[in-house]
Specification:
Shape of chain B: globular
CATH architecture of the largest domain in chain B: Orthogonal Bundle
CATH superfamily of the largest domain in chain B: MetI-like
Order of helices and strands of chain B: HHHHHHHHHH
Shape of chain A: globular
CATH topology of one domain in chain A: Rossmann fold
Radius of gyration of chain B: 23 Å
Strand order of the largest sheet of chain A: 6-7-8-3-9-10
Distance between the termini of chain B: 17 Å
Largest interface: A-B, 22 and 20 residues
Oligomer: heterodimer
Largest sheet of chain A: 6 strands, mixed
Number of strands of chain B: 0
Distance between the termini of chain A: 41 Å
Number of helices of chain B: 10
CATH architecture of one domain in chain A: 3-Layer(aba) Sandwich
Strand content of chain A: 15-25%
Largest sheet of chain B: none
CATH class of the largest domain in chain B: Mainly Alpha
Strand content of chain B: under 5%
Number of domains of chain B: 2
Radius of gyration of chain A: 19 Å
Structural class of chain B: mainly alpha
Order of helices and strands of chain A: EEEHEEEHHHEHEHEEHH
Structural class of chain A: alpha/beta
Helix content of chain B: over 70%
CATH superfamily of one domain in chain A: P-loop containing nucleotide triphosphate hydrolases
Number of strands of chain A: 10
């Protein structure tokens, strides 16, 4: 098994049924991710990037095609695959440290070991002073850091991040990107991050996967061969960013046959956005 | 800071007791100046004397203890059964489809209408009274717990899935705490209903020791002062239950942001 076989996504197609209409969220997507790699996936909303992430994490399994992690077929969630959601999704009735400890609930570790790991990861994300605080006492950035700690504490093999900084203000976002990069460099955990922010994708990724919508396909993969730590305003980064932007823009200027057909329900309102959670709830 | 909170509390307390004190004064004045027939509305003094007589010569505390025991036993049974039953309905689709419509029909039946059935099933003794009290607590607790569990955030349920929670972890870590605000409302209502039902059971089922029995005895002897003592005690206990429920609620829900 070669290194690039760490996470293998082969010909994956995912269709949703929205108000009786079949909608192809992902169309025959293939991608290999190497161990320890930082892959970012960027694309406009509705391109299926979050769907791809959820499938790879095993949170959604209703797809055609194969997804294998370390040679094993992904058939459901696993503790080897961590997940950080767009919202922190902390349990409001638990303190920050107990929220992080949820990640170890099924780890089978001894109590003392769990305690040590929780403390360690709170320190990693800079929340040591807030171990006993409840989520409502935290700022958005702090809550998201607690969410990242919960995703990391079990030492997953791969960490999936679904637009983790999307809801943060620009300053907090920049700081969190640097922190995430540091954690990645130190822990060598494979990371797959979905974002709609090109700057973020280029700054963090070893490779940037560009997806196009309706149906969701991988359009281009741009390697970012720049030394870390990277300079946000370096010329190299700017060049790659331009390339990614051009690739994204060329998608928009070339609508496909299915492109301008918005999903509508009987009343003519635009149907719920294609968030898998919403679709599954129907 | 603490002093400020203490003084606002004091002000609130003073405002709260104003009306009861005015009522007591109106009561005393009307009986003193002969506005009310003392046979129907005894004077405060009579009530106080009767209370003292019941307390010292008879076993008022014992009667109260009997009522409270019945109430607490029934309430606890109703509480545990209610949360368990509601969890079953909320978490098992099969149970929900099979049982919830029937339950929704049955809950419309007035609590008092159950008394004949309960007395046939459980007799007229303690068991029947406790069963009735338990039923009174059961219904609001089931309704609120069910509601709370059904509204458990799907986001967090998914986190549980990602972290490979088993059924026990899902219930203990997600569904029960998510439903806790609703359960607290249900328990609060259950506590009040069960106290009402305790008195109801003592009225409608066999006469035995208890505050309800005391009130009935007062009526039969046309001793309005005794009736008043009973009624005041019922009100006072209900008030204390209410305060206790609030305290419990704010402790259980301390993770929520403070509300004004």
């Amino acid at each position: 098994m070669s290194n690039s076989d760490h996470l293998r996504i082969r010909e994956v197609t995912r269709e949703f049924n929205v108000n009786g209409e079949k909608l192809t969220a992902l169309d025959s997507v293939s991608l290999n991710i190497a161990e320890g790699e930082f892959v970012t996936i960027v694309g406009a909303s509705g391109c299926g990037k979050s769907t791809l992430l959820r499938l790879a994490a095993g949170l959604d399994t209703a797809h055609a095609g194969r997804i294998a992690h370390d040679g094993n077929l992904v058939t459901g969630p696993s503790l080897d695959r961590g997940m950080v959601f767009q919202e922190p999704r902390l349990f409001p009735w638990l303190t920050v440290e107990r929220n992080v400890a949820l990640g170890l609930e099924n780890s089978g570790l001894a109590k003392r070991e769990k305690k040590r790991l929780v403390e360690e990861h709170l320190e990693l994300v800079g929340l040591s002073g807030f171990a006993k605080a409840y989520p409502h006492q935290l700022s958005g950035g702090m809550a998201q850091r607690a969410g990242i700690a919960r995703g990391l504490v079990n030492r997953p093999n791969v960490l999936f991040l679904d637009e983790p900084f999307g809801a943060l203000d620009a300053i907090t976002k920049t700081r969190m990107q640097d922190e995430l990069q540091e954690i990645w460099a130190r822990e060598r955990i494979t990371m797959v991050l979905v974002t709609h922010d090109v700057e973020e994708a280029v700054y963090l990724g070893d490779r940037v996967v560009i997806m196009s919508p309706r149906p969701g396909r991988i359009r281009d993969i741009v390697p970012v061969n720049l030394r870390r730590p990277r300079e946000r305003i370096s010329a190299g980064l700017a060049k790659i960013r331009t390339r990614v932007l051009e690739s994204l823009n060329s998608i928009d200027s070339r609508p496909t046959a299915t492109d301008e057909r918005p999903v509508k329900d009987e009343s003519g309102r635009r149907a719920a956005p294609l968030r898998p959670a919403v679709v599954l709830a129907n | 800071m603490t002093a400020a909170i203490a003084s606002t509390r004091l002000i609130r307390f003073r405002r709260g007791v104003t009306l009861p004190i005015l009522l007591l004064i109106a009561w005393e004045v009307s009986s003193r100046i002969g506005l009310a027939d003392p046979r129907f509305l005894p004077s405060l003094e009579d009530v106080a004397i009767t209370a003292k007589r019941e307390l010292v010569d008879h076993d008022l505390i014992g009667e109260l203890a009997f009522s409270l025991m019945r109430n607490i036993a029934g309430f606890l049974i109703g509480c545990v059964a209610g949360v368990a039953f509601a969890s079953l309905l909320a978490l098992s689709r099969t149970a929900d489809v099979l049982i919830t419509p029937t339950f929704n029909g049955l809950k419309q039946i007035s609590l008092l209408a159950w008394i004949p059935l309960i007395s046939v099933w459980f007799g007229f003794g303690e068991q029947a009274k406790i069963a009735f009290v338990a039923l009174a607590a059961f219904i609001p607790i089931v309704l609120n717990t069910y509601e709370g569990m059904r509204n458990a955030p799907a986001d967090l349920v998914e986190v549980g899935r990602a972290l490979r929670f088993n059924a026990r972890q899902r219930i203990l870590r997600i569904f029960l705490p998510a439903a806790m605000p609703s359960i607290a409302t249900g328990v609060h209502l259950g506590l009040i209903y069960s106290w009402l039902a305790t008195v109801g059971a003592e009225y409608f089922l066999s006469v035995g020791p208890g505050i309800g029995g005391l009130v009935i005895a007062g009526r039969e002897r046309f001793d309005m002062a005794l009736v008043m003592v009973g009624v005041l005690i019922l009100g006072l206990v209900g008030f204390l239950f209410n305060r206790f429920a609030y305290a419990l609620e704010s402790y259980l829900l301390r993770w929520r942001p403070q509300q004004e």
